[in-house]
Specification:
The structure is a single chain. It contains 10 helices and 12 strands. The chain is an alpha/beta fold and 317 residues long. Strands 8-7-6-9-10-11-12 form a 7-stranded parallel sheet, sandwiched between helices. The chain has a 5-stranded parallel sheet with strand order 2-1-3-4-5. Helix 1 links the parallel strand 1 and strand 2. Helix 4 packs across helix 6.
Length: 317
Amino acid sequence: MKIVFLGLEKDKKSIFEGSFGDAEVSFFEEKLDENSVVLAKDADVVSVFIDSTVDKNIIDALPNLKFITTRSTGFDHIDYEYAKSKGIQVSNVPVYGSETVAEFTFALLLSLSRKIREANFALKENRNYSTPPDAQGFDLEKKTIGVVGTGKIGKNVIRIARGFNMNVLAYDLFPDMNFAGENNFAYKNLEEVLSQSDIVTLHAPYTKENHHLINKENISLFKKGAYLINTARGELVETEALEKALKDGSIAGAGLDVLEGEKVYKKGDNIPMLEWPNVLMTPHVAFNTREAEARILQTTVENIQKFISDSPINLVN
């Protein structure tokens, strides 16, 4: 059996070496795409990250492929339905950063609400401890946060929000009424959550059905002066609609760890909203802690080991 890891830093190789018996294991820093697919040409198993593309063309170029494991929770970079039609199983890492991403959500929110970036920049520029005029923020206490998606990450966001004494509204296709009762919040429909929240934070998985979940039709429902946080998937938000709302002031600001089409951006590209003063943007790093990475790598080892032993786990197709 041949196992190929792509998009893997050199210092992570030792975690996987010796974990798969007599299998032939190869490691490459290149992400998987049409330019690098030759590196995995004989692979039975490939392990990738979210920056790889595993579409129909890639799958067809790997005739021996039997198993794809992504070192992430999201798997929209894989055509898992086509893989299934070819008898190829796909697994992910379903739980590794539910606390990690929730914490980062509040890192973005607190940076926006307390103008931390502006205060830090002013101090660096002026070398003066006087309070800059644009650094007055707002309290989170008693503000209403709308949580869109109440899976493991969304639930942790709600727990943190309750710690800040925030009011919570939530939207989910499959509401957890027991959890709502235990944590004293209400489920509403999406329109109600958008119109009644001071902050809207997205924690829904990306699917074809919720492409542009936030769009030009419903973004007008946001309370004037509200904020949007997205640490889920960029494609949940219609970029053009968000840009317009930020420009005309109907939304006060946004904290974005993900961006629609982020995979296509290269060094030096003009990234929408990056320089806007009311947008705080990070490059898809909400997952990135030592602890979360360790959980990702360990689960990936287990995914491959279980596949080899004909008892696959964490399958998405």
